[in-house]
Amino acid sequence: MEQPEDMASLSEFDSLAGSIPATKVEITVSCRNLLDKDMFSKSDPLCVMYTQGMENKQWREFGRTEVIDNTLNPDFVRKFIVDYFFEEKQNLRFDLYDVDSKSPDLSKHDFLGQAFCTLGEIVGSPGSRLEKSLTGKLLH
Question: C2 domain spans which residues (predicted)?
Fold first, then answer.
């Protein structure tokens, strides 16, 4: 049986079996009414995004925003670019800190709160905009 030229054969897809198609998603973080941990000024917030491994469930730091000085309502400029796999549950965690020094060590800064979601929740939200309340305890 002859196959029309414009149709793909099964053997053409076999070489792609190991690759899962992904879409790039740009995540922008904004916060409102953060805790004020500084005595004489407003907090200097930083957001750290983590992704969770599929097999070992370990959280890995994906990236950090810039620090914005003296605000409780930051609109971070630095974006996170993430591969979105439609069929996979991709857990994300966002930790917020009040930066008190130039140290990259997060334990040297005041923890403000964290939020958990999946990438699918963000993509599936109206306008791809998701709002979450921060929890106050640092959970790893």
Answer: 2-132
Judge whether 99 and 45 are in contact, CB under 8 Å: yes
Number of domains comprising the chain: 1
Q: Judge whether 135 lies within some domain.
A: no
Mean pLDDT of 26-55: 90
Q: What is the pLDDT of residues 11-28, one digit of tens each?
A: 344 444 456 778 899 999
Q: What is the pLDDT of residue 44?
A: 94
Strand order of the sheet with strand 110-118?
59-64, 45-52, 91-98, 110-118
Cα(31)–Cα(99) distance, rounded to whole angstroms? 15
Q: pLDDT of 79-91, one tens digit each? A: 999 999 888 899 9
CATH of the domain at 53: 2.60.40.150
Decide the pairing of beta strands 110-118 and 59-64. unpaired
Model confidence, pTM: 0.81
